[in-house]
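Known limitations

Structure tokens in this collection are predictions and should be treated as such. Users comparing against experimental data should check residue numbering before alignment. To illustrate the layout, the record for Carboxypeptidase is reproduced below. The input appears on top and the generated tokens appear beneath it.
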Amino acid sequence: MESITSNLIKLLLLLLLYFLPCFHAKSPPTSTLPLPTKSGYLPVNPTTNSAMFYTFYDAQNPISPLTQTPLVIWLQGGPGCSSMIGNFLELGPWRLNCDKHLQLEPNLGAWNRIFGLLFLDNPIGTGFSIASSPKEIPTDQYSVAKHLFFAIRSFIELDPLFKSRSIYITGESYAGKYVPAIGYYILKKNAQLSESQGVNLRGVAIGNGLTDPVRQVATHAASAYFSGLINGKQKTQLEKAQLEAVKLIKEGNWSEATNARNRVLNMLQDMTGLATLYDLTRKVPYEFELVGEFLSSEGVKKALGANVSIAWEDCSDVVGEALHEDVMKSVKFMVELLVKKSKVLLYQGQFDLRDGVVSTEAWLKTMKWEGIDKFQAAERKVWKVKGELAGYVQKWGNLSHVVVSGAGHLVPADQSVNSQIMIEDWVLERGLFANEQEANPSSSSTGNGFYV
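Generated tokens:
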């Protein structure tokens, strides 16, 4: 009886989705409508009602049994920005088409093509997630990781098939801190738990991340100057502002350090006159408001399993304020442990001026890891997809660094298919991400990019 009721509910939801004009693109069959495999809320604390909203889409065309099909977890940045941005503008199975009245269209670059894909609105208070009290919203990365660990464990317990599946945690921007934090926390907790109780973490991937702010904030002037966006006088002015931020970080004056970084970014914005620092080539900013318009529908909320009383916003000011003093604290030491125990991928869109290539390379070369010298000496290979330039890949051991051509801060939004190929090749260790001893010289400059 329970199974019949469950199937009836799913059928009603499918019908609801079909008749929502924002949901369907050019009469899709009902079997392809964007209903998540699972969605709803995951507890983060056994003593409160706080919960993390999630949507999960299992693999569309898995190439291995589901028990062996990797699970990719996506965390948006911010702090306080909803992963529904990633879901509906970047790497989810369906993307909003801003030119066609908010219709959803199939995303050929979806990251759940051959993997399971889990979106989490993190921290609580973000997106559709629920914070039982503002005081429970995390103010540091330990608290963020503690909640994420509880939520991920709760998700794994939803289905026995999840327990054996390898997990890769990914994210962009401020998730450059979330991803290392939860990865580090998992490694520490796994050491205390039995194998059946732990989380099967195999790797972490950070896109355009803010990870080691003290070094990254010092790179903006150089990046803009050598991109031809500011002159020498402006470069000197920016460098002075950057030094002030670095000074405050070293003094441990975290709140003022965050304010100082904001001043640097505001100066850079004013000097360059760009539409957005997230992509120096864009004429208009990324259109996050489209997701808000889409998710304002009560029918859409119900279909996604979200609390209909919550007014979704792309980025929560409340969460941002809670983590204000955390912004300029480094988590580089967490990456240093992760690269010893799991795979690490760092990738950037070449046009990002906020958390771009130069800022990542600045902290990457200071890593305390026995393989860093060999990584620095490794060849930076040209990466091509179907014969066209897709970017550049540098790899040694567990560490990979990718520059994605033609992309800004939101790499999967700008280079959907290439980002899919990147993440698939990295997880499956093929193409330019193959282990050194397995690499095929004949394919050393070309990403796989094939479709199973």
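For this record: The two ends are 38 Å apart (CA to CA). Residues 43 and 51 are 4 Å apart (CA to CA). Please report discrepancies through the issue tracker.
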